[in-house]
């Protein structure tokens, strides 16, 4: 947040005072939903699965130095495909599009997701922990990295071009993910990764730069250009159940 204040990538089109109350309200609401709806955390479940010796990796008995990074990478791959599914399936897209309708781009967008998506994502993670037998340390590292990287690559931070080119060989940078929030259909259906940049290249969903350039890049969804309530908490929560601008 401080870095994007010091080195912004693009000028703001909407003041924080008009966007952040709803965005931060969603973050608070999502945290409450997880606490109230799930009787067990991902870390607690991983510990219980280990005790029960459930899951693939608990049967293989791999060394921790190998198992932890393998599980972190597999969880990241799962998040990549989860993200693609939320774009590909119409009923999931109705939920996920709330993340895309924001007409501006900054660090607050990194945690701005509909509560339904948060619940579905949590169920997927819990299922993977049981299926794979993911160790506690791998779950902890993945959660920390996922949240940190989500805020980093959604930030309005201007990195030197050489540094961006170097970093995106390994991880998703703000410039790389910013393309994903373009109004152009081909671009917001690209660059799905949150952590590792390799998945988009490997599965051929990588777009290096927006065709209009970063200075002229328009964020949001073109068919939702001026929705009056897409910056209000009530409007955002009802967005999956409405048509454009209604």
Automatic annotation (TrEMBL):
Residue spans crossing the bilayer: 20-48, 60-81, 118-142
Record-listed E.C. numbers: 1.-.-.-
Limits of the Fatty acid hydroxylase domain: 69-205
Superkingdom classification of source: Bacteria
A GO MF label: oxidoreductase activity
UniProt-listed InterPro entries: Fatty_acid_hydroxylase, Sterol_desaturase/TMEM195
Compartments where located: Endomembrane system
Any Pfam family the entry gives: FA_hydroxylase
Keyword tags: Lipid metabolism, Membrane, Oxidoreductase, Transmembrane, Transmembrane helix
Recorded topology in the membrane: Multi-pass membrane protein
PANTHER family in the cross-refs: ALKYLGLYCEROL MONOOXYGENASE, STEROL DESATURASE-RELATED PROTEIN
Protein name: Sterol desaturase family protein
Organism: Agarivorans aestuarii
């Amino acid at each position: 947040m401080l870095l994007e204040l010091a080195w912004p990538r693009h000028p703001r089109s909407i003041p924080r005072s008009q966007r952040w109350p709803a965005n931060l309200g969603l973050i608070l609401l999502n945290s409450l939903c997880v606490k109230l709806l799930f009787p067990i955390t991902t870390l607690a479940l991983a510990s219980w699965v280990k005790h029960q010796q459930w899951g693939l990796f608990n049967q293989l008995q791999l060394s921790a130095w190998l198992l932890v990074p393998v599980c972190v990478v597999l969880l990241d791959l799962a998040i990549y495909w989860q993200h693609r599914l939320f774009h590909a399936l119409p009923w999931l897209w109705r939920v996920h599009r709330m993340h895309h309708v924001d007409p501006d781009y900054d660090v607050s967008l990194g945690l701005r997701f509909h509560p339904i998506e948060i619940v579905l994502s949590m169920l997927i993670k819990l299922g993977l922990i049981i299926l794979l037998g993911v160790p506690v340390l791998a779950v902890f590292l993945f959660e920390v990295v996922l949240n940190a990287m989500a805020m980093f690559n959604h930030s309005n931070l201007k990195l030197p071009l050489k540094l961006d080119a170097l970093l995106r060989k390994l991880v998703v940078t703000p410039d790389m993910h910013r393309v994903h929030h373009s109004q152009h259909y081909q671009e917001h259906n690209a660059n799905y990764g949150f952590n590792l940049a390799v998945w988009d290249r490997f599965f051929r969903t990588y777009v290096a730069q927006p065709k209009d350039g970063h200075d002229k890049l328009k964020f949001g969804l073109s068919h939702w250009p001026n929705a009056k309530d897409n910056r209000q908490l009530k409007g955002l929560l009802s967005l999956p159940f409405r048509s454009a601008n209604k």
